[in-house]
Amino acid sequence: MEPKENTLTGIEGWLRFHAFWLPITILITLLENYYILRIFIPKIDPKIASTFNLLAMTDIVFIFYLSYITFLFFNKDYRLPEQIKAFYLISILYSLFVLYMLSKSSYALKWYDYKEFIQSVIFTIIWIPYFTFSERVKNTFRAYY
To answer: What's the pLDDT band for 93 if we cut at 50, 70, 90?
Structure first.
């Protein structure tokens, strides 16, 4: 009896979501930062502007880390599952940091300022178990020695 070929490999299934989502997130974050740094900050009170400058600069670090994860993803690197799980946990902490910084400034928080935090929590609840238990993830991102 011949062993069955494992068909759960490659960037297929739910991994296609990440193939789309990772590059788009980098692009959207770059566009948001351009808007904040070039258009929004010059028009607002200088007391609030420093907070938005700090948040935009921390976004740059976020973009570099997300670019690294994207590189790992498309190279099917064995380090991706742990790195993307760390990314989702960091995104929750980062969202809380953003909310804290905005609340400490004279900026009045609105309902949509919580969107990033809620989205981070939902993504973390869904994707950390997926990257932990999925056979496709285990077969696609395994170390080849």
So the answer is: very high
